[in-house]
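2.7 Reproducibility. Because tokenized structures are sensitive to small changes in the input, we list the exact sequence used for DUF4190 domain-containing protein, including any N-terminal residues retained from the expression construct. No trimming or masking was applied before prediction.
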Amino acid sequence: MNAQGIETHHMASARPDAVGTRLTTPRNGLATAALTLGVTGLLSSVVLVGGPLAVLGLILSIAALMSAGRTGAGRGKAVAALVASALAIVVSGLVVVCVVWYANRTQECYRPDSFHQYTRCVRLHLDGDRPSSAHR
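Resulting structure tokens (single pass, no recycling of outputs):
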């Protein structure tokens, strides 16, 4: 005890071969893995790779939250992983919808003779009712 009546703990030994002299905080490896997958999925969700990574991150983050409920370790990381994974799934879904819309809207343009023809065809299909003189 020190002068204020607070009990203090000292390391048992300063020798490097002493075992158990450091206190460690519990870690949640699932939370770390889930956060890594969630953030990677979010960053790569625009190119559709993030969707499957985010699904794995979501599964691991749920498992990490369950583990954090028992041990108390890694709860913040698990929640962040859950949010990042959910956002990545939403962004990937929106990208898929946009790509399908674009492909459906311009499907007649997929047999062009040149890139110039393709771009002109896409403009015609995306602009819709505009007069053809505006596309020159």
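Residues 47 and 92 are 8 Å apart (CA to CA).
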